[in-house]
Design a protein that fits this description.
The structure is a single chain. The protein is of the alpha+beta class and 297 residues long. The chain has one domain: 2,3-Dihydroxybiphenyl 1,2-Dioxygenase, domain 1. It has six helices and 15 strands. An eight-stranded mixed β-sheet has the order 2-3-4-1-12-15-14-13. A seven-stranded mixed β-sheet has the order 6-7-5-8-11-10-9, covered by helices on one side. Strand 6 and strand 7 form a beta hairpin.
Length: 297
């Protein structure tokens, strides 16, 4: 099972929704007072804040949510707020949104003290990427909040709590001060990795020098060639990437018929008309595939 909160949970006679068995997350929910944000989000009845999932591509796929884990949730929320994110909530559960993406932030698993989390440097997902309308003004605003670019990179790159690397570019055509752009993925063979995302998520792939670009509605994925060792995302602060599909049952059938293995069973929240399943790509990127989030208003 992938290493981050999700909808998945065993079946329980007292549950509002029917879930498939075999998911240890139930123990987390029963034994911790920490909010498991993504679980609570999916179990909630209000989806009014999630209104901007992009229209799917020809393969019926869109992208647009990141699942993060933070040792200090307040510090993580303050960092994203300083970048221009806005708070939103379901009941008493706090969430964060930036145009084009929602951030689901939860505490690491385990009893206090929280286990150490590795950042995303050197994993399959090297950077989350965002665009700003006015880079100079944004940098001044962030500096006032104590956030300055990393000196290790020529490109504007911020280091968030739990060592999440955030890359920033300027787009003066933006209608908002900041918006989601996509991500940068590390790959030893960019043609192979981008072809996998084209096959399963309909990414429109093109070459840019040594790199490949995969365009999925809601995410521009840069597949960056590297000869350095690449770690999986499991156990790191950037937990899962999310993709929304029009027909999860068809996706699962095609995926399993190909001989590929899922990380668990499909879990369904009948009341919300929402289903999810987790998988890991061949290079170690944890992914959650959902059906139903596009109905959110």
């Amino acid at each position: 099972m992938a290493d981050s909160p999700s909808l998945q949970d065993p079946e329980s006679p007292s549950a509002r929704c029917r879930f498939l068995q075999g998911h240890p997350l139930l123990g987390m929910i029963r034994h911790t007072m920490k909010p498991i944000l993504f679980v609570t989000f999916l179990l909630g009845t209000s989806f009014t804040f999630l209104a901007q999932l992009p229209a799917p591509n020809e393969a019926g796929v869109s992208a647009g949510h990141h699942i993060l884990r933070a040792k200090d949730i307040d510090a993580a929320n303050k960092f994203w707020a300083a970048l221009g994110a806005e708070p939103t909530s379901v009941g008493s559960i706090k969430l964060t949104k930036i145009p084009g993406v929602l951030l689901f932030i939860s505490a690491p698993r385990g009893n206090p003290p929280a286990p150490s989390l590795g950042g995303n440097h050197g994993t399959t997902v090297e950077f989350l990427t965002f665009k700003v309308k006015d880079l100079k003004a944004s940098l001044a605003q962030w500096k006032a909040a104590g956030i300055e670019p990393m000196k290790e990179y020529k490109e504007t790159t911020l280091l968030g709590p739990d060592d999440v690397q955030v890359r920033i570019t300027e787009d003066k055509k933006l209608a908002t001060p900041i918006a989601s752009d996509g991500l940068v993925m590390n790959a030893a063979n960019v043609a192979e990795v981008s072809a996998w995302y084209a096959k399963w998520f309909g990414a429109k792939v093109s070459r840019s020098g040594k790199d490949m670009i995969g365009e999925i509605p809601g995410a521009r994925i840069v597949f960056r060639e590297t000869r350095d060792p690449i770690a999986p995302t499991k156990g790191h602060s950037l937990g899962l990437l999310g993709f929304e599909v029009k027909d999860l049952q068809d996706f699962v059938k095609r995926y399993q018929d190909s001989g590929a293995k899922l990380d668990g069973n499909v879990a369904t929240n009948a009341a919300a008309k929402l289903s999810v399943v987790q998988l890991t790509d061949p290079w170690g990127t944890s992914i959650e595939v959902s059906q139903g989030l596009n109905a959110a208003k």
